[in-house]
Amino acid sequence: MVRRPASLRNALTKAAFPKPPRVLREMPARFTSRLHDERVASWLGIALGVSVTVSFGTGLVSHFMQHPAGWMLWPSRPVNVYRVTQGVHVIGGLATVPLLLAKLWTVYPKLWQWPPVRSIGHGVQRLLVFVLVGAALFQYVTGVLNIAYWYVFRFYFTTAHYWTAYILAGALLIHVANEGGKARRTVMTRPHDTVHRRGFLLTAAGAGGVIVLTTVGQTVTPLARLAVLAPRRPGTGPQGVPVNKSAAATGVTALARDPAWRLTVTGRVAREVTLAPAALRALPQHTARLPIACVEGWSVEANWHGVRLRDVLALAGVDDDARVLVESLQPSGLYRTSRVDPPHWQDPLTLLALGLNGEPLHLDHGFPCRLISPNRPGVMQTKWVHRLVVS
Ligand SMILES: Nc1nc2c(c(=O)[nH]1)N[C@H]1C(S)=C(S)[C@@H](COP(=O)(O)O)O[C@H]1N2
Ligand SMILES: [Mo]
């Protein structure tokens, strides 16, 4: 701790904070539970530290898969990487909420300490704790609201959640540097009292476990029936696959049903190609069993039927290192296009799907044609495709 000259300390405590207000003088009497204690706070802190670190790592994967820097080439295999990292991110994050609440409850008497600031060092430390708590609450609250489609916030979720993650990670790092040693020593020594910490900690962990059990079915299909808290479940929606954005919601219905629909390949190509539905069906047809893995944590595996993207690009004669922008009929919206890099478009499992689970593609799943590719966020599995622009 930073030591200040006694005169400055006295000035801070005596002059600035002469006497605590009455509510604060009476407050400590209300914190009767012995669970507001160092050991409980330490265990919860360690669990939160691990969980936030995992969320940060999986969150970065999610961000850079969706917004790859120019030099980043994500592999297309194993097909389920994104499904697993994003499932861990969302379900792990949900399970952490009770731990965070338990931790805040445990330490909240410290909020009322008097004087609020004892020295400059103490003031900086407290400020960092406020940043830590604020960033953590922001991440968990916006995360939960986002998967519940409750967009009460005015800002764009993805950007805010991404940048706040760095604030949270930085504040956590400093917090671990300040308190980590103390927490480690605390949990390493044996307690000699009769405080019932174990019951409290197990309750918080159990609440997290219940959340996992009631949401994991949104991505682990055999547990779908347990997924009572999950916003999306396998088996719901047309052709057994949930729909996020319907054709009606995006205003593509008329365009998608237009008999004049054609798929065109343009940009840096040897020859432009225009394919009618019959021409697409005349190309070699393939089936790929691949998941739709939404950023919101749900995922569903399905059988997709259609033509290989690489076969279509070969007709136009594209370079091996080409990048392809897949464009939707959708007139506007963030997810009307997606970029497909060589590892993905060269993968034989990457299809322009014309069918799903043995039937022609449903309008809400992207009829007449949608992209489906392994190890890729759901938002990049573009529906109602009509143009491939090569660069
Ligand atoms: N054109 C277009 N494609 C899109 C979207 C969209 O809004 N517009 N949503 C994406 C999202 S967020 C997901 S999770 C998947 C969902 O696919 P599904 O509706 O076939 O299940 O489609 C993706 N493709
Ligand atoms: Mo999604």
TrEMBL record:
Tell me which stretches of the chain form a coiled coil. Answer: none
Annotated keywords: Membrane, Transmembrane, Transmembrane helix
Q: Which Gene3D superfamilies match?
A: Oxidoreductase, molybdopterin-binding domain
Q: Which Pfam families match?
A: Oxidored_molyb (PF00174)
Q: Enumerate the transmembrane spans.
A: 40-64, 84-106, 127-153, 159-178, 199-217
InterPro entries per UniProt: Mopterin_OxRdtase_euk, OxRdtase_Mopterin-bd_dom, OxRdtase_Mopterin-bd_sf
Q: Where is the Oxidoreductase molybdopterin-binding domain?
A: 259-391
The record's listing under CDD domains reads:
SO_family_Moco (cd00321)
Which PANTHER family has this protein been placed in? BLL0505 PROTEIN (PTHR43032:SF2), PROTEIN-METHIONINE-SULFOXIDE REDUCTASE (PTHR43032)
- The protein's name is Molybdopterin-dependent oxidoreductase
